[in-house]
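Here is an idea for our session: we take a single protein and study its fold together. To get us started, please write out a protein record for me. Once you have written the record down, we can walk along the chain together.
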Amino acid sequence: MRTGINEYSQTSERKKPATLVAGS
């Protein structure tokens, strides 16, 4: 997990499930 994961996840979540990749 990273500090900017919150902002990145919100933006990626709309485009693609990058949250799962970044979260893992």
Summary: The helical segments are 5-15, 18-23. The two ends are 8 Å apart (CA to CA). The mean pLDDT is 62.
